Amino acid sequence: MAVAKVFTPEIELEEVSMRFQTDKTEVLALDNVSVAIQKGEFVSLLGPSGCGKTTLLRIMADLIQPTWGEIKVAGKTAKEARLAQKYGIVFQSPVLYDWRKVKDNITLPLEMMGTKKSERESRVDHLLELVGLKKFKDKYPWQLSGGMQQRVAIARALAMEPEILLMDEPFSALDEFSRERLNEELLSIWSKVNNTVVFVTHSITEAIFLSDRIFVLSPHPGRLSSVVEVPLPRPRTADMRQSPDFYELISRIRNLFEGV
Amino acid sequence: MAVAKVFTPEIELEEVSMRFQTDKTEVLALDNVSVAIQKGEFVSLLGPSGCGKTTLLRIMADLIQPTWGEIKVAGKTAKEARLAQKYGIVFQSPVLYDWRKVKDNITLPLEMMGTKKSERESRVDHLLELVGLKKFKDKYPWQLSGGMQQRVAIARALAMEPEILLMDEPFSALDEFSRERLNEELLSIWSKVNNTVVFVTHSITEAIFLSDRIFVLSPHPGRLSSVVEVPLPRPRTADMRQSPDFYELISRIRNLFEGV
Amino acid sequence: GEEETSSEELTPVSIQLKWVPQAQFAGYFVALENGYYEEEGLDVTIVPGGPDIVPEQQVANGSVDIGVNWVASLLAHRDEGFPLVQISQIYQNSGLVLVSYKEDGIASPADFAGRTVGNWMGGNEFEVLALFDKYGLDPYSDLEFSSQGFTMDQFFTGDIEVASAMTYNEFQVVLAEGVSEDELVVFDMNEEGVAMLQDNLFVNSEWIEENKEVAAKFVRASIKGWQSAIEDQEAAVDAVMNAVEEGSSDREHQVKMMEEVAKLVAPDGFDPANIGMIDDAMFKQTADIALEFGVITEAADLDASYTHEIMEMVTE
Amino acid sequence: MKNRGPLQRWAQKITWIFGILIIWEICSWLLLNVFQVRLAQSKLPYIHKLIETLTSYWGTLFSEGWVTFANASIGFAAGASAGILLAILMSSSRWIEQLTFPYAVASQMIPILGLAPIVYGIVRDVQLARILIAGYITFFPVAMNVLRGLRSAEPTAMELMHSYAAKPWTVYWKLKFPAALPGLFSGLKIAAPLAVTGAILVELMGASNGLGVIMLRNLYYGPSHIYMFWLTVILGALLGILSYFIITIIERLVTPWQPEFRSLGGDD
Amino acid sequence: MQGGPAEKNASWMEQPTISKSNVEGTGENRIEANNKNHKRMVEKARMIVLPVIAGILFIVLWELRFFHTIFQLETYQLPLPSAILEALLANMSTLISYTGYTLTEAVVGMLLGSSLGFIVALVATAWPKWGKGSLTVVASLNAVPIVALAPIMNLWFGSGIGSRIAIVTIMTMAAMAINAYKGMNNVHPFALDLMHSYAATKFEIFKFLRIFNSLPYVFTALKINATASMIGAIVGEFFFSSRGLGYLLSNSIKIGRMPLGWACIIMAAIAGILFYFIVERLEKVFLKWHASERT
Ligand SMILES: Nc1ncnc2c1ncn2[C@@H]1O[C@H](COP(=O)(O)OP(=O)(O)OP(=O)(O)O)[C@@H](O)[C@H]1O
Ligand SMILES: Nc1ncnc2c1ncn2[C@@H]1O[C@H](COP(=O)(O)OP(=O)(O)OP(=O)(O)O)[C@@H](O)[C@H]1O
Ligand SMILES: Cc1ncc(C[n+]2csc(CCO)c2C)c(N)n1
Ligand SMILES: [Mg+2]
Ligand SMILES: [Mg+2]
Question: ipTM > 0.95?
Answer without folding.
Answer: no
